[in-house]
Write a structure and sequence with these properties.
mainly alpha; 2 domains; 67% helix
């Protein structure tokens, strides 16, 4: 136990990162406590929680018809297959609903409607936990790749991002942070596993923790948003690229993680093969509309979404892209991988003018933070460190001030 609590694990960088995450959590709690929190999303949120309780086996079957009255979350067409009395959702699996309803398991079955209404604020708890875990994961990855400066830059952008805070508190938004954490974990856990394949140990047994984490990431991403299945083969491509001499071991690990993810999704449907197969047949894995690339409004919508991430990010992203394009030193795998994934997700967002387009754009945000922090960390190691540090500090401070103003005034 004494080896676990070392200065390397719990030193000044970890304390500062923890304080930033506490400040992020405080902003989220402030926004969530503002009046009219459920003004527009109340009915849909209640429906989501009630549906999750049905999957948990908590709610009586007679309550289901009222639940599926929300067209935003359920397919109402006659062609949509049904499992029992539940109409299947094309974008989300049962896992998404199970997570949303988990805080309400203490409610008594006889008083479910009243319990949900009086404790509806609990619906944000799982999403908020995922948001904090994503912030911690972002800092850990950026710090391992680019040092303390890269970790701080990525985390500060994350903690003072209006778009992230809105999504974390479900401020008139669906719970997407579980999918965001799963997507982030799927890519960077796969990369981390690949870097251990040359160690002189039995690869599968030694990596069992990372295999479990990779399987959990796959399940959380795909279970929260079916279309994120696109990241599963992307993770495999990164693994094969990073371990050209151990590709068989990499494939074994990837397949093991896929089996774990499938098992978790199977469990979410109560280990009923018919229910799982019906959900998968009806799932919208990649319903893209390529004509959207010819619509100007699609690009404007994406630009507006990036603007909601934070003005500082919009200002510094072009600088990072220019530096990456014209500076050979910045074009290495640590910077290229997050840029590739972010670009892929933004392209998919453009090709999905409706849902899950917003989800794709949100998943791209943490990867953009990693890319930006990597390029800036490289620039800080040049002879122009003083100028870069002053400029980046100004951008971070301005971005934080704008974000705090928006949060205080409830967006």
């Amino acid at each position: 136990m004494s080896k676990f609590f070392t200065r390397e694990r719990f030193g000044q960088p970890q304390i500062l990162a923890g304080l930033l995450l506490l400040l992020f959590l405080a902003q989220c709690l402030w926004l969530a406590s503002r009046p009219n929190r459920y003004r527009d999303g109340n009915e849909a949120e209640v429906a989501r929680v009630e549906t999750g309780l049905v999957f948990w086996g908590k709610a009586p079957a007679k309550g289901v018809p009222a639940i599926i009255a929300s067209p935003e979350f359920f397919q109402q067409s006659a062609s949509a297959p049904a499992v029992g009395t539940l109409t299947l959702n094309r974008d989300h699996s049962a896992l998404w609903y199970l997570i949303s309803a988990a805080p309400f398991l203490f409610c008594r079955t006889a008083d479910l409607p009243g319990c949900i209404t009086s404790h509806l604020w609990l619906a944000i708890v799982p999403n908020l936990i995922f948001a904090v875990l994503l912030g911690a994961s972002l800092w850990y990855v950026a710090r391992r790749l680019y040092g303390n400066s890269g970790g701080y830059i990525a985390l500060i952008f994350y903690c003072f991002s209006p778009g992230i805070i809105v999504s974390s508190t479900m401020w008139f938004a669906q719970p997407e942070m579980g999918a965001a954490w799963g997507a982030f974990g799927a890519i960077f856990t796969a990369i981390a596993v690949s870097h251990t394949l040359y160690a002189p140990r039995e690869v599968v047994l030694w990596n069992w923790r990372r295999i479990l984490l990779l399987g959990l990431s796959f399940a959380l991403a795909v279970g929260s948003q079916f279309s994120l299945i696109i990241l599963v083969p992307v993770a495999l491509l990164f693994m094969l690229y990073l371990a050209p001499g151990r590709r068989r071991a990499a494939l074994t690990i990837w397949l093991s993680a896929c089996v774990i993810a499938f098992g978790l999704l199977f469990a979410a449907y109560g280990f009923h093969p018919a229910k799982l197969l019906a959900a998968l047949r009806n799932a919208n894995f990649l319903g893209l509309v390529w004509q959207a690339f010819t619509v100007v409004e699609a690009y404007l919508a994406l630009f507006r979404h990036l603007g909601r991430i934070g003005p500082g990010v919009v200002a510094i992203l072009p600088v990072a892209l220019i530096a990456y394009a014209y500076w050979r030193r910045a074009r290495y795998f640590g910077n290229t991988a997050p840029l590739i994934v972010a670009a892929l997700l933004l392209i998919l967002s453009l090709a999905s003018p409706h849902y899950p387009g917003y989800g794709f754009a949100l998943m791209a945000v943490p990867f953009l933070f990693v890319f930006i922090s990597g390029v800036i960390a490289d620039l800080l190691e040049t002879n122009h460190r003083a100028i870069v540090l002053l400029s980046v500090s100004g951008v971070l401070l301005a971005n934080a001030c704008v974000n705090l103003w928006l949060v205080i005034h409830a967006m």
